[in-house]
Design a protein that fits this description.
It is a single chain. This protein is α+β, with helices and mostly antiparallel strands and 424 residues long. Helices cover 36% and strands 22% of the residues. The strands form 3 sheets. It has an 8-stranded mixed sheet. Strands 13-12-14-15-16 form a 5-stranded mixed sheet, sandwiched between helices. β15 and β16 form a beta hairpin. Bound molecules: histidyl-adenosine monophosphate (HAM).
């Protein structure tokens, strides 16, 4: 039985060593996105449920099965955000943004979906996402994809595959929808109960079904991209040409429709090894969303990558950054006067940005050296009455065992100079 101190299944505690790796990825994202003129947007984690119901689509798994939705004490229908795009669009609509006005935003943060936890699948997971809102052109889609791959390169994920497809516009995809309805009508009895319902409510969602018995039927379904109208096919051809011009490899994946209803035109996913069954690292595409209360829909293109999955792939590829030391110097003191000095020195070093730890309890030398090793300090700066009288500090390199003495007044300079070793 799970202990009461464990987080609930699908949720996780992240300790300092892991957080360093998270920050590497987050900082790379911020840097890359800034070079494409994206600014950060932080939206609330809790939203009115309608923000998601309407944008993501009532028939999607996220809305039907996975959203943490509840009524609060005031009878309001609220939901923990299962993804970032709908909240971003609500925020932009609230700002009074109108279509045609370009806005480029990125976000980092937790999302919540009540899925069965597995490797790379959490109930609280974290997305790094971007939305380029307001303009519709194949060039924007290409630039967004180029930025995603640039970001993946910057964190060492160079082995990955970009899958690409088009959903066309709502008008242009009507013949494809009818073809799917006709086709699946002939296989209704063999489809799972969910797909039988989807056949009535939103036939596209059948293409996302993961139930094994539905797979042979889905594989043989009509090629929807080929049934789209000419404007949608031209748009897609221009996206492909733009990627070719930048030398970006991709695979056209005819079954890719993505699990959310707001997409039109370009849809894409990046898959990579190291994720087991959850091989999708990032997904996105072009969309049109009419936020609740908004008068008109806003168009955009964007993507989100799961941080947990980025980290799994980085581990698989062996490109994790070695954990940095949290502490460079441990200040050891013997006696009250030495301890008072070390407390002042610690403050001076910390104010100069040098990470230090020290004994605050007047423990013995052995206990303090043990503590220095436990916090993986590189140097022990040892001060007793004798050193204090001589105006010196004994510095021991805990990796090499080499010792040197420094004048008490020279410790800050030594640390700022990058801890030079004694001259032999
Ligand atoms: P999504 O495909 O639902 O798209 O999620 C994007 C990424 O979030 C996935 O590729 C995966 O890496 C990660 N992810 C999703 N669910 C989980 C989970 N349960 N555990 C761990 N990671 C997960 C969206 O959310 C869209 N809003 C993307 C987008 C932005 N489209 C346009 N703009």
């Amino acid at each position: 039985m799970a202990s009461h101190s464990e987080p609930i299944p699908g949720f996780a505690d992240l300790f300092p060593a892991e957080c360093q790796e998270w920050r590497t990825v987050e900082e790379a994202a911020r840097q890359v996105f800034a070079s494409y003129a994206y600014g950060e947007l932080r939206t609330p984690i809790l939203e009115r449920s309608e923000v998601f119901l309407h944008s993501l689509g009532n028939e999607t798994d996220v809305v039907q099965k996975e959203m943490y939705a509840f009524e609060d004490r005031g009878g309001r229908h609220l939901a923990l955000r299962p993804e970032g795009t709908a909240g971003v669009m609500r925020a932009l609509a609230n700002l009074g943004v109108v279509d045609g006005e370009e806005h480029r935003v990125y976000y980092l943060g937790p999302m919540f979906r009540g899925e069965r936890p597995a490797a790379g699948r959490r109930r609280q997971f974290h997305q790094i996402g971007v939305e380029c809102v307001g303009r519709v052109s194949p060039g924007h889609d290409v630039e967004c994809l180029a930025m995603l791959l640039h970001f993946l390169d910057s964190i060492g994920i160079t082995q990955r595959t970009l899958l690409l497809n088009t959903r066309g516009t709502a008008e242009d995809r009507e013949p494809a929808r009818l073809a799917l309805r006709d086709y699946f009508a002939g296989h209704l009895a063999a489809l799972c109960p969910d797909c039988q319902r989807r056949h009535e409510t939103n036939v596209w969602r059948i293409l996302d079904c993961k139930v094994p018995t539905c797979q042979p039927i889905i594989v043989a379904a009509p090629d929807t991209a080929a049934l789209l109208g000419q404007p949608s096919r031209d748009y897609f051809a221009q996206v492909c040409a733009g990627l070719d011009a930048l030398g970006i490899p991709y695979q056209v994946e005819k079954r890719l429709v993505r699990g959310l209803d707001y997409y039109c035109h370009t849809v894409f996913e990046v898959i990579a090894e190291g994720l087991g069954a959850q091989n999708t690292l990032a997904g996105g595409g072009r969309y049109e969303i009419q936020p609740p209360g908004g008068k008109r829909s806003l168009a955009g293109v964007g993507f989100a990558a799961g941080v947990e999955r980025l980290l799994l792939v980085r581990a698989h590829l062996g490109c994790q950054t070695p954990p940095a030391r949290l502490v460079s110097c441990y200040l050891v003191s013997l006696g009250a006067a030495a301890q008072a000095h070390q407390v002042r020195l610690a403050q001076t070093l910390r104010q100069a940005g040098i990470p230090v730890m020290l004994d605050l309890e007047g423990r013995g030398m052995k206990a303090q050296m043990k503590a220095a090793n436990r916090c993986q300090a590189r140097y022990a700066l040892i001060l007793g009455d004798n050193e204090l009288t001589a105006g010196q500090m004994l510095v021991r390199d805990l990796d090499s065992g080499v010792q040197q003495t420094l004048p008490l007044t020279g410790v800050l300079e030594w640390a700022k100079a990058g801890y030079p070793a004694p001259v032999a």
